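Example 472, ligand protoporphyrin IX containing FE.
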Amino acid sequence: MTAVGSLDRSFASPNHAAETSGPLYVPRVQPLDRTLGPFSVFARLLKNPLRILPAAAYEEGIVWAARAGRMVCWITDPALIKTVLLDKRDVFERTSVTQRLLGPLLGNGVLTADGADWKWQRQTAAPVFRHHDLLSFVPLIAEAAERLLSAWRRGEDGATRNIDPDMTLVTFDVISHTLLPGGESHVGPLIGGANIDFQKPLGWQMAYANFRIPAWMPHPGWLKMHQARRELRAAVASLVAERRAKPTGKDDLLQRLANAKNPETGAHMPEELLIDNLLTFFMAGHETTAKALTWTLYLLARAPHWGERIAEEVRQVAGDGPLQPEHIDKLVITTQVLKESMRLYPPAPMMSRQARVDGELAGVPIKAGTQIIIPIYAIQRHRRYWTNPDHFEPGRFAPELEAQIPRYHYMPFGAGPRICIGMAFALIEGIAILASLVRAARFTVAPGSEPEPISRVTLRPAGGMPLAVHWR
Ligand code: HEM
């Protein structure tokens, strides 16, 4: 937990009474309200890239800045976002910054590739993500939640746990018992170990990439990061080798990627690319959902009446038995809470694109290489788009009101053809885990604690998320 002072108190209600009576107020990270020199920008990038989000990004539609000899702009205007992500998607490609951050681990897989390379990989994986088929995973997801609850039950009632790694473990448990079976024995032992070492230096990577410092330049955590990369890739390679030696005959994600042929060359995916993609799905497929759950449990600890409503709803819909596929759509309150939590704490807080060629944006001429940042965090707390933007009000997502939210005002899963492929999976999983945990337990947090959300590709709570777990 970090100092409250690093968050924006300017919109604070006069006291903390909101925690029990009115809607809960959760301050945004302090926006940047002045021009900083390069050293200060570097330091902020290192600490938390959300701290260089200009105040105007929460109020205007576009903000320009120059950095390391290149233009950067933040866009929050819906029409501009549509231009970049949809209408002119061939002009605005994945950024060199994204490549610098994710490329070392994820290579040229579906998340990091562009153009034709991206398209066939996306088309290969897409059929695995059909909503109806994903619903059949609900009992397996509920079992993973039960395994976590059993671990919690071995501790004392009311014991404080760091919920953040617990959510990572449960969502990894889910991905490796559903889309990527076998992951628990091969990759599982490294999650929470090697993965953490890979995440820690992301601040340096981010700062280096923005200031165009060469990738070979070492920084704290550099060696460990590369060791983590080698270990993770070796673990995935051994999973692939095992499946090749003992095929299961199942049409799962691994099999589908291994069988796929590039339409241009007719060749199978080279082994390296297969590993890139499997690692992409292992990592993208659990880390973001874990963060969504961590922040949701935090919000429920601060606004316990919403936890009561969820528990009541789950009992009405599913009784005390395991959750089933048909229950998901009926968990309306649970869904609203999860969606509102992803508004205030978007698990992927920023997206970015880069102009491939010279052109224009919002009538301003831009050079090839201009960085376009789409700050989901600021869009979803934008002063003009939301009433009470920093208040936790799940009722905004009541079905009739949700339908009125403009497309580019709420976009935790991105938008356009590169919208998150795992969106339906993440929602089903998030709802099922949340429902299972909240039916069994209540959560409390030290009064007045305000964890700072830090952007490290995903949105992490600085210092973890200690919550006390009480049985219902
Ligand atoms: C709450 C959970 C999740 C959130 C908030 C989230 C968010 C996002 C966002 C914002 C993007 C777009 C990035 C961009 O366009 O620059 C994205 C892409 C992606 N996500 Fe997710 N994601 C979640 C869960 C998942 C899951 C469960 C999987 C896989 C099982 C997954 C796999 C991917 C992949 C492969 C891409 C790249 C898609 C492409 O470029 O075609 N995500 N995600």
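Summary: The pocket of protoporphyrin IX containing FE is lined by residues 110-111, 122, 179, 280-281, 284-285, 288-289, 292, 347-348, 351, 412-414, 418, 420-422, 425-426 (CB under 6 Å).
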